[in-house]
Amino acid sequence: MGPLDAYLPYLLNRAGARIASAFGEEMRPLGASLQIWRVLAALREKDGRRMGDLSNTTAIEVSTLTRLVDNMEKGGLVARRRDAGDARAVALHVTPAGRRLTKRILPIAERYEAVALKGFTASEAELLKRALQRLYDNMDELER
Fold first, then answer.
1. E strands of the chain, at which residues?
2. Any idea what the CATH number is for the domain that residue 43 is in?
3. pTM for the structure as a whole
């Protein structure tokens, strides 16, 4: 085992990049991408999110997210509407076409998770997810 094989950021990136690349290939024929899926998944979880919330949830930078949402809106997948609680804020809502695409992608995403977690017990999978969330949150320290 070389030094790279023991370096956590390398291992995380290698695993993530492999999953993202294969998933992206499967999204292309559907006219989607990994980033489009992240937005749709976040809106499936909670429709009517504001851009800042969506940026945090999807880990997509606001400027990139704005362009992505513009294209998704042109494609009829999402619609921007004034937030009911705050007329100055804009909330993003999934359209019927966006819901149909989400339904097509969901089983693919579930299969990827199942393949990635093959051989893990339910408690190991839960521990891994919690550890990765904690690791992500720990990185806030470097942004202060």
1. 49-50, 78-82, 90-94
2. 1.10.10.10
3. 0.88
